[in-house]
Every structure is written in C-alpha cells, then in structure tokens.
Amino acid sequence: MADPPGCCHPCATCLLCLYSCHWVTPKKRKGLKTSKCDYSWFLFLFCVFLFTLVWLYFAIIILNDFHNFNEFIFKQRKLWLDWSLVLLIATAMLITYSAVLLVLALCLQLCGQPLKLHWLHKILLILTALVVAAAFTGLGIKWAEEWRSARISLQATGPFLHIGIVGGMTLLAWPLASFIYRTCNKGLKVFLLLVYCAVMIALYLAPLGITSPCIMEENQLPPKPALVGHRGAPMLAPENTLMSLHKAVDCDVQVFETDVMVSADGVPFLMHDEELTRTTNVQAVFPERAALNSTAFNWTDLQQLDAGSWFLERRPFPTVQSLSAGDRYQVTKQRIPSLEQALEAAKQSNISIMFDLRPENHSDYQSFVNATLKVILQSGIPLQQVLWLPDGFREEVKQQAPGVQQIYGRKRLQNEKEPLLQVNLPYQDMSSEEIRQYRQDNISVNLYVVNQPWLFSVLWCTGVSSVTTNACQVLKEMKHPIWLLPSSTYLMIWIVVDCASLLVILWAFLLLKYVRCLSPSRARSSETDVLLTKINSLMQE
C-alpha cells in the first residue's frame, strides 16, 4: 500500500510500529491490507474512547460530593485517603491510553496505512472497557444520586459540550473522507456517509433541546444565594469546632450548620459521626471504648479528646497544606465544643445556627430534644437565629420554643396543613422548575452540599435562596456566575459554530478529492520521465 502525498515513509513506519507493536519495513507494508476484523477493532477502539471520555466527565462531576465517599470508606474500613486523587489518576491513564491509540489509528488512516492492532492493545482495550463498565455499575448501585448530579451538570456544560462535540465530529471528516475515497465498497461508502450526515444534522439541531438557567439576560439574574457553612468551614479548620465556626464567619456565611449529640450525662455537643474515631484521638485516649457511640461518653471524657490534630494528619481537603503556622497551632488546640459554646459564638458573631440532632433512632431521643431545648432557651441567643432541622418531636419544640425557625427536610405536600416557609434538601432533589416555583411562593430553599463553582452558578441562575457548602472561601469570592449568556448571543454562537463546521467538512472532502485526483497524474508523469530517461540513454549508447 503506497503512502499518499505528504506522508513520509519514516513517519508511516513509526506510526504502524506503535500501533501494531512490531517494526514493519516499507516492502512488508505494501503487502499488508486492513481486513474487516481490523476495522471492527478500530470501531471498538473508538467506542472505548467515547466510553472512557464519558466516565471522565462523570469523574469530574462527582468531585463535588467526593468527600462523602471518603467518609463512607472510612466508616467501612477505618482507612482515610483522598480517593478523588486515585479516581482522577486512574481515569487520566485510561483516557490517555485510548486517546493515543485512536490518534495513531486516525493518522494511519490518513497516511493510507493498514490498521493492524497488536493483540496486547486488544487485551488492554477490553480491560479498559471492563474497568469503566465496573465503575459505572458501582456508581449506579452505591451512589445512584450522582446520575441526577450529571443531569444537573448538563445545564452548566450543555452549550459547551455541544461546541466540543461538533468540533470533534468535524475533525473526523478528514479520516472519513480519506477512507471513503480509498475504499471500493460502494455500500460501505453510502452507509458511512449516511451515518455521519445523520449524526451531524442531529448535532446541528441539538441546541433546540439544550436548556440552561444561565441562558438569560443580565437584568434577570436572581440575587446571589446566601452561604451556609457545612460544619463550619471544614476546608479551613476541623469540622464542628469553634475554629471552624469562626473561619465560616470570616467567609461571610449567614448560617453555621452543624450536628448535635447529647453526652451520657446530658450535655449537648457538636459531633457528626456516631463514633468518635474519625475526628478525635479517642483511640489513643480511650482505646477500649473507641468503637462506642458518641453518646456513651460523658462530658468530662469528651473534653479530654483532641478534636483538631486529625485535620493535619489526614488532610481531608487539599487546602490543609496551605494553612499558616498560626492556624496549624490553633488547630491542635481544638476540643469538642458544647452546644452552649457554639450558641454563644454564634450570638457574638451574629449568625444563625442550624443543626440536626443525632442519632434519631436512639431510645432516649426525647430526652435529647429536651436537653437541647433547655440549652437553647438558657443561652440567651435570639430564637430566630436558631434553625431546627430534626423531625422528631417537632410539635413539642414549637410549643416550648415558638420563636425557633422550623426547617423541613422534605418538599411540600398537596394538602399541607401548615405552609412550609423553609426547606433544606440535597441539591439533586429539586429541579429548576421547582426552585422557581418555591421562590415565587416565598418559600426559602437551601440545598446541600454545593462545593463546585459550576454547580453554585447553576443554582444561582435558578434562584435558590441559599446553599450549604464546604468551600465557603471559594464561593464567597464569586461575584458573578461562571457564565451568563443572553439567548440572542447563544443563538449567534450556535449558528456560527454550525456554519463553520459545515464549511470545514466540505473543505475536507473537496481537498482530499483534489489530492486524490492529482496523485495519478503525478504518478503518470513520473513514469513518463523514467521512460524518456531510458530512451535517451539507449540513444546515447
């Protein structure tokens, strides 16, 4: 198989060597042809690349919630690791491998070389497909809500994904045109052209189905959502500590969100996990009691625990590395705060405090509610600064502390006896239409946990009232959504991209047609020159 113009022999040989894993000389290469099986493997390679590319998109999206996954693994295995790094490194390796192979195959096709994929590459491609399939399966079984996160992400990335996919499919016109002009199978030519044209038409019309709340005029943008510090500012200080509360205040949060438990001697304190092992040194101080529920410890025992050093040792967030020496010292001095201490700090900082009371399935839960209410009423904090989340004994709470704001962890019902004023839900549980409707009905909507700027931007454009976040220091600095496009501007971008793509595709097919027609004439001219040279040499003899 001869190399087409513009494709040098060394380049073609090197490409084929990398793709087929053995050195093929130009003489041997002339006898090689691409079989139907080879084309099948090329199609499989293309599908694996797309499959891995989709997984890379999912991996980036689920980074918003990956701290929850790290906590889940710790509860199961007592091993702390930032698994997001493992995920990204593994995904980058898979996508890089399949992308390099695909680029090699496309270059070989443009150079008119056979596609002889080595058996080792075939095995690795099958393993890549199986690994990605297993990752998607595990995601669907253990973390199904992330599928809804992906749907939300399309509101932020849809317009740009459309441009990227159109660009990628446009570039495929070159190897496709090269293959169509080279093959003699008319049926295959027609099939490939029809499929390609159908895909491009669908892509050109795709914006008709793309919706995003950020496609709006500047003057229609709702106010920026208020920030709720998830356990304080857990990227800057140990979660559920007074230092975390003060760091959250520095980030301009309006609400400190936390979790409350009650000690064995009736003192409410801040703690999220049912066990103390993740966020304290209980294994060193009370090794024989480390596995006990947090509520089994009395307040004197809890005050002996270090609630800060784990933050420096395990580094739950990359931001820990950038802490100043003063902050690091302050971290080591943190202890488990009581609810009374947290209420006093919230009162002095003039921020609200919102909390869950755990564990809700405890046999003494009613006494927990009473102990918590007693501390709230004695603290002197204005009751409107207290946001009550627990559903258990809610009516008793309303009677004893009518000024406390009631926050509901559910959507409103059709026959609601008492209208909801504030709801607190996972961000995956509410659609853009529901958020807009709640906003029109003066219902405050707080969504959790929102860490990534792209997600915050989508919810901002939608009109959510507030978001609970681990990254208050990041969202605080956002003065505007990441992007905001008027519909007229998006329409113009859509038309320009589609027209440019169509022109490039036509140019690719016409140019390769011209080069194809030019090659035989050059070959005939070369043969004529050789013949004249021979005749001239004979005449001289």
TrEMBL record:
Q: Does the keyword Lipoprotein apply?
A: no
Q: Which positions, given as ranges, span the membrane?
A: 39-63, 83-111, 123-141, 161-181, 190-210, 491-512
Where is this protein chiefly located? membrane
Keywords, A to Z, come to: Glycoprotein, Hydrolase, Membrane, Transmembrane, Transmembrane helix
Query: Superkingdom, according to UniProt?
Result: Eukaryota
| Recorded topology in the membrane | Multi-pass membrane protein
Which InterPro entries does its entry note? GP_PDE_dom (IPR030395), PLC-like_Pdiesterase_TIM-brl (IPR017946)
Q: Where in the cell is it found?
A: Membrane
Family (UniProt): Belongs to the glycerophosphoryl diester phosphodiesterase family.
Q: What is this protein called?
A: GDPD2 inositolphosphodiesterase
Q: Which organism is it from?
A: Cepphus grylle
Q: Which gene encodes it?
A: Gdpd2
